[in-house]
Amino acid sequence: MTWETRRFHEEILSREVGAVRKGWGGKLRVALVYPNRYEAAMSNLGFLTVYARVNARADAVCERAFLPRERTGGKVLHGGYKRPRPRGEPAGRGLPLTTLESSRPLSDFDVVAFSLSYENDLLNLPGLLSAGGVPSFRADRAAQKPSRRRERPLVLAGGFAASLSPEPAGAIADAVVVGDGERAVDSILDLGSPRPADDGYLKELAAIPGLFVPAGYLPEYDPRVGNGLSPPGRFAGLAPRPGFPARVVRETISLEEFPPVRPVLAEDAELGRMALVETSRGCPKRCAFCAAAHACPDFREVPLGLVRATVDALWPHRTTVGLVGAAVLDWRHFRVLSKEILSRGGSVSPASVRADLVDEEIAGILSASGHRTVSLAPEAGSEELRTRLGKRVADEVFFSAARTLARAGIVSVKLYFLCGIPGVGEGEEVEATADFLTSLRREVLREAKSIGRMGTVTAVLSPFVPKPFTPLQWAPMAREKDLKSRQRGIAAKVRSLPNVRVSADSPRSSLLQGYLGLSDRRVETILRQAGMGKVGLPRGDVLSEIVFREKDAEEVFPWDVIEGGLPRKALRARYERLIRR
Ligand code: SF4
User: Which of 103, 109, 73 is nearest to 91 (CA)?
Assistant: First the structure.
């Protein structure tokens, strides 16, 4: 540990409330790594929940590590004042990656656990492990001398992206948590000191519900198809070795049994000075592209008393409450709790707002909480195209929500659209999105005139990426050129409209997301390149196989090893209905 590293870490810790620093004596040591920036990690409730739960155990200590900040200096604006940003984290300048709490390298820990919320974060894992002194790939660790193998930490992966389809993360991780991780993490620690080089220990891990152990499965490929892949062939299944289950059941916990935690509060969190509290998991709507609603199809709610208790515990430090969930307005206590918080002088920020649930009361809550922009997700520019995405909501629902919000003083809206909708031509998609934006702007303007203020309508265009366990898992992605052309077409059509802005997510990054999310352990090839600093898309024939191809009805998916979600037959029937309209 260098003096510079310690001073850097102390500076960060001094701006946090709730960080845990424990002595290591006799405890299991867990390094929890967020493979992206500190600011994003500290706004990620899943990451913060694992940290709090492991540290709640007397026999374990959990410390955090992050992707090092870039080397640039400069200023960050925070809380109305400017403070100098540290000039590059030591680990970003070639020094070892160490944890925040004790500045020790990852190799000193018993467990190194990654929280992967986004598929593309997988690209950061090899570099982080190697900077922490741990061989990056499972195959490399297995090839070490027995004495070295015994010393190395167990590498775990969890989080939404890893959990949705664990095969890609399995190129790196010894085990992947599938589904809710709360109970699985406890069960892993209950096994005592990890022995990842011991096959018997791996079998014990595989017996834990919701834990996928990649070494327990031999991948099979069909060499007659699947050009360009290495090893060659289309994915054809995972054959379990003796002692490993044929399928891993996605873990689902009761949100009453595992109440919300009190997360660490960080001044520099991306979402600002906000107390994040979970309200629910899943969504009752089940739009056909949405993994959050399909991975675990039950909508589960946290009881009001548990959410309120967490808000109360955090109240001395934070009076802005970020209510977290894929469907926060569906949480039946949203209105009651929000009004309570407002009456105490605080404010609320729901993680998502569904247009059909916006009424005068909701708009009032958002306005009283200081929101001047609200995000809505039409996904497509017409009801017909929306229906193709399994989201049957009329345009008027969004117009009405925008008018209601404007009357409450919220005159800026951010609208999320998918582009490259399966089976929809460019012309139709561009026309529909541009028409929708034109109409919605007109509706907001009408209300805004009466209150004498007009805001901005911002359209965010994100390429459609098929997700495992959804009805659209069989659908192909559009090509990069096509996606760019659609984004440019929409931007061109609304360029002359005052107060309308267009922001386009990178098609290249979305294709990478599709590739990493829909693949199997053979992503190792590009992860190795990423570990050497070369991040890029795989070759064209590989992309054609994995992302641009409509999958066969009976095709075996890498995520078929997971049992969970809706029956495949029902998903396929819905896909047929949507795509063959
Ligand atoms: S409403 Fe939102 S969270 Fe719910 S299924 Fe649709 S896209 Fe997913």
Answer: 103
